[in-house]
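Let's inspect a concrete specimen:
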Amino acid sequence: MAASIDGMAIFKACSALLLVLLQPSCITAIKSKPITVSLQAKWPATPLVSEASEFLAEKGENSFWSFVDSLSELKAADVGETDESNYAFVLKFAGRLLSDTETDLLKLTLSIHSHSPRIEMFNQIAQDLPPPQGCDTFVDVHGDITCSLKELDKLISSANDRPKPNVYKVDHSYPGSENNPVVVILYGHIGNLDSQMKHFHKQLKKSANAGTVQYVLRHYVKDKSKRQVRLSGYGVELAIKSTEYKAVDDTEVKEGGSQSHDEDDNAPDEVQGFVFSKLKELHPDLMDNLNSFRTSLLESTRKMVPLKAWQLQTISFQAAQRVLSTPVGNALGVLRDISQNFPILASSLVKTQVKDEVKREITENQKVFEVNYGTAPGDTVMMLNGLIIDTDVAEPFLLLELLRSESRMLGGLHSLGASGEAATQLMMVQVASQDSTYAVDIRDNGILYMNDLEKDDRYSHWPGNIQEFLRPMFPGMLRQMRKNVFHLIFMFDPTQSSSLQLLQQVEMFVHNDVPIRVGLVFVVNNDDDVDGREDVGVGIMRAFNFATIDRGSVGALDLLVKVLTKADEDEVTMENLMTVFNKMFPGEDLEDVFGPGGDYDDRRQDGKTYFDRTGLGSLPQVMMNGVPYSSKQLQPEEFEESVVTSVLTATPDIQRAVYRGKITDRTVMVDYLMTQANVMPRLNPRILSADTKLLDLTAKPVDTSSLTLTTFQSLSRNEKVASITNSMKYLTKRDDVSLRPVSMWIVCDLETAEGRTLFSNAVKYMKTSNAVRIGLISNADTTGKGSQWLARAVQAALQTQSRNHAKLFVQKLIKEENYLSMDRGDTKVQDYEVNGMNMEDFLKQFEDKKANFLKIQRSFCENVLNLLPGQRAIIANGRVFGPLSEDEHFKEDDFVLAEKLILQTSAANIKSKMEKLSSHFSTSGDSLSDLTLKVDALLASNSRQEGRKEVVFWKDKHSVVDIPPRHPDKPSFDIVAVMDPLSPQAQKWSHILMVLTQVINVKVKVFMNPKDMLSEMPLKRFYRYVLQPELSFRVDSSLTAGPFAKFTDMPPDTLLTLNLLTPESWLVESVKTAHDLDNIKLSETETGIHGDYELEYILVEGHCFDQLSGQPPRGLQFTLGNKQRPVTQDTIVMANLGYFQLKANPGAWMLRLRQGRSADIFQVTGHEGLDSQPGDDNAIVIMDSFKSKIIKIKVSKQPGKESETLLSDSGTERVAGGIWDSLSSFFSSFTGSGSKDTETEQDKTLNIFSIASGHLYERFLRIMMMSVLKHTKSPVKFWFLKNYLSPTFKEFIPSMAAEYGFEYELVQYKWPRWLHQQTEKQRLIWGYKILFLDVLFPLNIKKIIFVDADQIVRADLQELANLNLQGAPYGYTPFCSSRKEMDGFRFWKSGYWASHLAGRKYHISALYVVDLVKFRKIAAGDRLRGQYQALSQDPNSLSNLDQDLPNNMIHQVAIHSLPQEWLWCETWCSDSEKTTAKTIDLCNNPLTKEPKLHSAVRIVPEWTDYDNEIKALQERVAQNSSNKSKQSDIKTDEHSEL
C-alpha cells in the first residue's frame, strides 16, 4: 500500500512539474501529417437488414425465411430512424434466431460487409431484366414481369406457356416449393416495410404451401444509397524506399483539402513514460497543451536511427521480451505497435534486456515446434481449435467462414454439456471426412486375370525386389516391377456395347506392358440351365474362356473387343458373336463350346455372385485395388489419367510401408492391401455417398413423458429430433449398460414385408456386434385401418422389458412365419412369451390403443426425414441412409459396412475420448452412449480433410502471452499463434487477433518464436491492417465513413512508397489523390496525405483443357458479359496450367467462347464451378462474394475443325467488340478510331507498350509519348499497364489523346496466385514487363514495342516494327561496351553470365520489339514463366528480373540483337555514338548517381521543350475543368433559387 502511495505521489509531483513545461510559451506545436488510405467497392452500400438475412441463410434456409416472415409482420414505425437504431434493430431481430456466439459473428460480418456482394449480385440480376419503371417490388413469372399484385394470378395461370427462368444455387427457394410447377421470382427489399414486399411475400408463401408455385426471393433495392461500401480486410504498407538514385518529381503538388475522418488521432497513449490519458484526466484545462506536448515527444522519436549489424543480432528476442513484459491486457497492442512501427522503434528495442529464463524457454519451445510442425525460428503457425490456418492466404472473409463452422460445433458441444477442457478435447477428435477411398476385397474366384506380373515371361526382365519402390523416379512415371501391386479390375456385362471403350483400354494396358495387373469380372446370367446358345452374355463368356485356352489372354481380349466392335453402338447379338467366333476359329465345334454342359462355363456363377456382393449397383465398374472409380473417371478422356493418378497417389503409402519393413519380398501384396483399414465388406453407394444428410441432435431435450402429437408438431425441427432421440429405446447384443458408440434407428413400416425384412436384418446384425444399439421408428400410415400391432408390440417390449428379454421376444415376433400366424389370428403375441419376461407390464403397454407414439413417429418421418408412409431408411449416428427404393435391399453386410464406416471415421475415437472424459459428465452407460451419438453426429457434420493438431510445447510460463476468454462460462474459440514479433505475419495477425478478442469469446495463446543472429533489419516497412470489430457511429447516431488505414508520426525525411496488400482475388486501383503515393516524403508536404482506392474487380480464374488431348488450348479466348452487354471482359488461355483470368463485379455473368476463330474451332463440352442449370447452353458465373471464382472448362474442336489451330502464322483473328479491360480513348471521334478494327487498319497502327509508377515516371512517360508522336507518321496506339498508374495520369490521358490524336488502352492483369509472388513493387513492375506479353494484348495485335518511360525517341518506331527479327520472337538492343570507364560494372563480362551467354551479348530491357504471333506460337510466354518459377525461388536470382530472365532464356527463346543505334545510354555508350542514336535511355549511373531529372535536362536538349509543352496542356485542361466546375455551380444555384 505504501509503495502505491509513493508511486502516486511521484506521479503528481511530475505532473506538477509539467504544468510549467506545458505553458504555451514552452511548447512549439508540431502539426501532425497523417497518411491515410481508404478502399471502397464500386457498388452502393447495401442495407444491413439484407446482409443480416444472408448471414441467417448460411445458418439455414429455415432461419432466412423465419426472418423474412417476422419482418413482414412489422410496420415502418417499429424500426428506428437513425443508422444506429437500425443497426440495433437488426442485431436484436436477427439475434432471436442466433446463439450469442453467432450474434458476435454477425457483428463482425456486418462490419466487413461480407454479404454485400451477394446483395449487389441480386441487384445486378434485377437490373439485367430490367425492372419495371418506378417499382420497388416486382415479380418475374417465367419471363413476364409485373409489380401489380392483382396481375399475379393471371401470370401464374399462363406461366407454363413460357420457359422457366434460371434458379441458382444461391437463390432462396421457399422450403418445400422446389418441385412446384411454376417459378415465381420476387424482387424486393425485405427491410422496406412501406413497400409491397410484405404483401407479395404473404401471397406467394400461400401459393407455395398450396403446391402451386416455386417461390424464389431475390434482394432488390430500388433507391440506392449515396455511399459506397467501405471495405475492410486488407493491409497497407509504407515501404522504405532506396534513395541511391533520386527519382522524385519536382512538380509542385496542388494540395486539396485533406480528407477528414471521424475517428480520433490514434497516437499512442503512453509516450516516453508519460501516460497522457491520466494527465488529461488530472488537468482537463490543459488538453490542447498536452496534445501538443505529446506531439513534440513523438516528433523526437520519429527519427530513424541506423543500427549496427551487431545491434540487430538479438533484436527479435528483445521485441519478444518487450511484449512479454507488458500486462496481458495490453500485450497484443504492444505486439502490433512494435511490429507495425518497427523501423522507428528499433533504436529503443536494442536497449531491452532479454531475461535468461525467457530466452531458454523460447529456445526449448522452438525445438518442440520444429519436431511437431516443421517450423524454424521466425516462422509462423496459426491454429483455430487445432485447425492450421494459412497465414499468408487467410483473410477475414475466409476466417469468418471458418469461425462460423467452428461456432456450430462449439455451440453444439456446449448445449450437450461439454464445455471448457471437455469441449476442447472433443474438438480435437480426429474425424475423417467421408471420401471415395473405400475399397472392397478383390480376393475372389470371380476375377479372371489377364496377366501376372510375377509369373508371366514377358515381365521377367523387370526387377523383382520390393526395394525398387524406394528408388527415385521421374515425376509421372510408373515403376516397372515384377510385383502384383496394382490390380485394375473391370466388372462388365459383355452384351453392353458401352463396355467397348473400357475393354479397349484393358487391351492397351496389357499390350503395352503397363505395370498393372488387369482382371475381368463377367456379370452374366448365372442360371445353370441357360447355355451359350440361348443367352448371348453366357455365349460371350464361353467363347472368351475357349479363346483363353486356345490363344491366351491376349487372344481372348482380341475376341471380346471384336465382338463388341461388331455390334457398334447396339446391343450385342448372337449373330455378332458367331460371326467373329467363326472367323477367328473356323471349323470349331460350336455345340461343344456353346451348347449344354461343356468345359467352357468356368466361373460364370462366381462373377455374378462377386458383383452382387460388392453392392456397386450399375455396370460397368472399374476398381483399382478394390477402390471403385467414379462415373466421371470412367469417361474415355479421363480414364487413362485416372488410372495413372491413382497409382501415383497410392505409391507413397506403399513406399512408407516398404521403408518401415511392413512390406518385404515375402509379402503377398494382395493380402497386405486387402487388410488395410479402408477395405470394407461391401461397397454400398447408399452408405458411402459423400453427401449423406446428417441430423442435428444438439437441441435441448424436451419433456417426452406426456408428449402429444399436437405438442410435437409445434416443436422446431431440431426439437423434434431431440424428442425422438431422448425417447428412443434400444435393442443390444448384451444386457448391460456399457458405452456403445454406434446407434442405429430403423425407419420402416412393420406391416410390410420389406419393412419386416429390413428390421429383421438389423436385429440379426446386432447379434454379431456389441458396439451397436438398434432402435425402431415406425413409418406407417396412421390414417389407415391397420392396427400396427407389431410396431406396438416391439415398442411395448422395449419400454417394459430388460434388453435381453426384449431382444429374444422381438426376434420371435419378427420371424416371418410367426408374423403371418399372428396376423391370421392363429396365434397371439403372448404365445411367444420369453421365459422371465414381465408379460403383465407388456400387455398393459401393448393394449393401449391410443398409440400416440405411432403418430408422433410418422410426423417425424414426414416433417424431418421427408419420407412418404411406408418408405424405409436407416439413421446411424445421425446419418440418414435413405429413403431406400422399393427394390433396394439393405442386407446384414450393409449394416456391418455402416458400423465399420462410422467407427473408422469418428465414433471409435469419440468413444475413446468419452471414456477418458467421463468424469466431466454426470452420465454413464446408456446416457453416455446417447451423448456419444449426439457428439458424433455433430463432429461428423463438420468433418474436415485436414486434421486438427494438439499444441505441443515445452513450457508456457515465461515466453507466452495467454489471454483468457472474456466469458469463461460460455463457448469459446481457442486460437494458438506461434510467431516472430518482427515478421510480416505479426504485423497483420497481431491486429486480427486484437479484433477477434474484442468481438468474439476467444482464448488466445501467443508463443514467441523470434529469430536469432539477425544481420539486417527484419522489417523494412510500416504497416497497417484495416479491420474493425463492429460498425461505429457518430454522436448523432449516423454511420461513420468507415474503416481506413492511418499512419501517424512517420519519419518526415524518409522516402516511403505506399502499397495496398489486398486479398488475391481483388483488383484495386487508386482513384483519388493529389500526391505521389510512390514517393512520399512528409517533410515536403504541407498537410497529411490521403489516398482513395476502389475495388475495381473481383477475379474469375479458370483452367481450360482440350477434352481429347488433355492439353491447354493456347490462344483460346473467352468473354464474359450479360444480356445487356454480351462482352464486358475477355481473356486468352495460356499454356501454363491452361490458366485464364477474367474480371467481374457481383452479378450473374455468361461465359462464352469469343466470336471468331475461338467459337468457330472450339466448343465447350464440360465445366466445373459454374452455376448453369442442367441442359443450359450458357455457362453462368455467379459472383456473390469477395472471393475469386475458380472454374474448370473443357473444350473440344468442332466437327470438321480437328486439323485447325488458333495460333496460325497469319494471326488474323478479328477482335470485334472486345473491351480488354480498357479505358479506351472515348475521343475516337477526334481520332477516327471508333470503327478502325479491320485487319488493314490494325496492321498500320504502331502499338507501344509502357509501364510507369509514381509521378516522376508518369512525367517521363508523357514525354516519351510526345517524342514518339513527333517522329512517327503511322497511327499510334499506346498500351499502359493500369495496375500502378496514378489518378492524375488517368484523368489527364484522355485530354492528351484528344490533343495529339492517338489511341490508348489501359490493360490490367492480376499476378496469378500459382506463380511465385514478388513482394517489392519494383520487382512486380519488372515482372509485368516480361511475364504476361502473350495474354495482355488481343490476338489481332501482331507486334508490340516496349519503350521504357524514361526514354526519348528520335526516330520513327515504325522502322523498328518493320524490322525482320530473323525468326526470333523478340528483339532487344545489346548493352553498349564503348564507354570504357564502366568496364568494372559490366557484370555480364565475367562469372556466371560470361559462361552462360557463351559469346552471346547481354541485352538491355529498356526497348524491345515483340513478334506476338511468333511469341505465342512457340509458347515463349509459358517458357519464360516456367523458368521464372524455377529461378525466383532463390532470392539471390534474377536481381534485374526484366532483363535477366530473357537473357537467361536466350538458348530456349532466341533474342534478335537490334542494331546498337536503337538504344543509346550515356552510362554505357560513348559520346560519339549519341549522334546516330534513335532512342536515348536515361539509365542510372552507378558512378555519379545523378538524379534522373538532372540527367534528362543535361543529356536531351529537347526534353525541356517536351516537358513545357505538356505542362502548358495540363494547365489548359485544369483551367477548362475549373471553368466547367464554376458553370456547374452557377446552374445549381439558379436551380435552387427557382
Q: What stands out?
A: The radius of gyration is 38 Å. The chain has 50 helices and 49 strands.
